[in-house]
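Duplicate of #3305? Posting structure anyway:
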C-alpha cells in the first residue's frame, strides 16, 4: 500500500480506518472486516468511547493470524483533560490497556485546548484551562517522555495551526511528525499542508467524506454534502467509481494520509478500493475549483462565551 515516510524510515499506510462515531457494537466487526480487506492502519481516540472494543478486535485479528502487531499501524490521541505534563503517560497507558497493546505507532495531542482533569466534557467556561495554566509546550514534553519510554513510536498533534506548530517546532527535542486535520475539497488547507511538509510534519485528513453522521448539535442545517456534490459525482461517473472513492483518491493524490470512517462491510471495502483509483490533473483541477472553505468540525464547542479559547486562536 502507498505510505508516507517518517524521518527514521518507518512507513505509515496512507489509508486507514477512521473510528470516530463508530459505536460499540459496530466497531468490532468494522475493524475485523477492515483488516481482512487489507487495511493496515486504524485511527482511534479515547474520546470516541470505543477503544476497548477496537482492542478486542485487534486481539482477535492477532490471534487468528489475520495480521501481526507489527503489520498494523495504530494511532490514538491524548484527550484535553490530560494536558499537564505528568498526566500524559498515565492517559496513554489507559489507552494502551483499552486497546490491549504494548505500544502505539502514533500518539497525537487531540486538540490545542485543555480541560480540567475531571472534565472530560465541557459544560461551562470554568471547565477549561488556559494556555497560561496548561502551556502547549508542557503537554508536548509529556509526549516526548512517552516517546522516550517506547510507548509511542511517533508523536504528533491534531487540529494544530501554524502558530501552535511553530511553538512546538521551535522548542521541542522530539519532533511532532504528524498533524491530523480536517481536509476535503471544501477545506483543502494548502498553506497549512505546505508548512507541515516543509517542516517534516506529515498530514492526515479527517472527515474526508464530510462526516455526515456527526451529532446534530455539531451540524448546521444548510451544510454542504460532499458525497452529493455535482462535480464530485460527475468525476465519479466518468471513472465508474463512487463519490466517496473520488474524495479518498483526492486525499491520496495529495500525499495526505486519509481515514474514512465506516462501519458497513461493503463501504469499508469500497473505500479500500480507492487505492486503485487514479485521478488525473483535469479531475484535480476541477475539484480545486470547488467553492469553499467549509469546515464541518468548526471547533465552536471550545469557544463559548468566557472560554479562554477564541475561534481566531484555533484556525489560521
Ligand atoms: P457508514 O459508517 O454507515 O458507512 P467521515 O469519514 O468523513 O467521518 O464520514 C463518515 C460517514 O460517511 C459515515 O456516515 C459513513 O457511514 C459514511 N460513509 C463511509 N464510507 C462511505 C461510502 N463509501 N459511501 C457513502 N457513505 C460512506
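Output from current build:
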Amino acid at each position: 500500500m502507498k505510505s508516507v515516510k517518517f524521518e527514521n524510515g518507518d512507513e505509515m499506510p496512507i489509508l486507514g480506518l477512521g473510528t470516530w462515531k463508530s459505536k460499540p457494537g459496530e466497531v468490532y466487526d468494522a475493524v475485523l472486516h477492515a483488516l481482512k480487506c487489507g487495511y493496515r492502519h486504524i485511527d482511534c481516540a479515547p474520546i470516541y468511547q470505543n477503544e476497548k472494543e477496537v482492542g478486542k478486535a485487534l486481539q482477535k485479528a492477532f490471534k487468528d493470524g489475520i495480521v501481526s502487531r507489527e503489520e498494523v499501524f495504530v494511532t490514538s490521541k491524548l484527550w484535553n483533560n490530560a494536558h499537564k505534563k505528568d498526566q500524559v503517560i498515565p492517559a496513554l497507558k489507559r489507552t494502551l490497556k483499552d486497546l490491549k497493546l504494548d505500544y502505539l505507532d502514533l500518539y497525537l495531542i487531540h486538540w490545542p485546548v485543555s480541560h480540567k482533569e475531571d472534565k472530560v466534557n465541557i459544560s461551562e467556561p470554568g471547565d477549561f484551562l488556559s494556555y497560561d495554566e496548561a502551556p502547549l509546550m508542557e503537554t508536548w514534553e509529556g509526549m516526548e517522555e512517552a516517546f522516550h519510554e517506547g510507548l509511542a513510536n511517533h508523536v504528533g498533534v491534531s487540529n494544530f495551526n501554524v502558530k501552535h506548530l511553530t511553538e512546538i517546532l521551535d522548542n521541542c527535542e522530539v519532533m511532532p511528525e504528524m498533524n491530523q486535520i480536517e481536509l476535503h475539497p471544501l477545506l483543502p488547507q494548502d498553506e497549512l499542508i505546505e508548512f507541515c511538509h516543509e517542516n517534516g510534519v506529515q498530514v492526515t485528513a479527517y472527515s474526508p467524506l464530510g462526516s455526515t453522521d456527526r451529532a446534530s448539535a455539531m451540524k448546521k442545517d444548510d451544510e454542504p454534502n460532499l458525497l452529493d456534490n455535482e462535480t464530485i459525482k460527475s468525476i465519479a461517473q466518468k471513472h465508474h467509481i463512487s463519490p466517496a472513492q473520488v474524495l479518498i483518491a483526492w486525499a491520496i493524490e495529495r500525499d495526505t494520509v486519509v481515514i474514512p470512517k465506516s462501519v458497513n462491510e461493503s463501504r469499508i471495502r469500497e473505500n479500500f478500493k480507492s487505492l486503485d483509483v487514479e485521478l488525473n490533473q483535469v479531475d484535480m483541477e476541477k475539484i480545486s475549483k470547488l467553492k469553499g472553505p467549509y469546515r464541518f468540525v468548526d471547533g465552536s464547542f471550545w469557544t463559548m462565551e468566557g472560554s479562554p479559547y477564541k475561534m481566531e486562536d484555533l484556525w489560521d
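Confirmed duplicate; merging threads. The radius of gyration is 19 Å. Residues 18, 207-213, 227, 242, 244, 260-264, 267, 270-271 surround adenosine-2'-5'-diphosphate (CB under 6 Å).
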